[in-house]
Amino acid sequence: MKTILWATLTGNGNYAQSSPNNPPKEEALGDFATHVQAAGNFIVGRGTFEGMQASEDGWAFTGMDIVVVSAIVKEIPGVTVVGSLLEALSYLRKRGYQTALVSGGADLHNAFLGQGLVDELIFNVAPDSIY
């Protein structure tokens, strides 16, 4: 299975931080949605997922296979919750996916990169002023 890590970076190279009070910009969300549609799934950390739930735009992904990686939370309605990166990939592989899209946050990205589980990187670069 091909694993793609997708992230929005600010112009100065930092991870773009979004929140309910600072939602992702339309351009970044549109790029992400394009990649989600192509993969049919995405893997996300619990904190980032909670931010998506609080955002009106977060549910543009209804019907997609969403896998939340969390050591704390064991169940979230409507998504699959797993305790590890390998469990996330195994779940998607068993569902027949050829590609897994890793979407955030920074800790999840670093964990995937640190374990050598990323085949491709996609960076959406945004000006510092929008995040």
Can you describe what's shown?
The protein has helices spanning 26-39, 46-54, 85-94, 106-114; strands at 2-10, 41-45, 65-69, 80-82, 99-104, 120-126. The chain is α/β, with parallel strands linked by helices and 131 residues long. The protein has one domain: Dihydrofolate Reductase, subunit A. The chain starts with a strand and ends in a 5-residue tail after the last strand. Pfam families: RibD_C. This is Dihydrofolate reductase family protein.
Topology:
Blueprint: E1 2-10, H1 26-39, E2 41-45, H2 46-54, E3 65-69, E4 80-82, H3 85-94, E5 99-104, H4 106-114, E6 120-126
Parallel strand pairs: 1-5, 1-6, 2-3, 2-5, 3-4
Give a quick rundown of the structure.
This protein has 131 residues and is α/β, with parallel strands linked by helices. It has helices at 26-39, 46-54, 85-94, 106-114; strands at residues 2-10, 41-45, 65-69, 80-82, 99-104, 120-126.
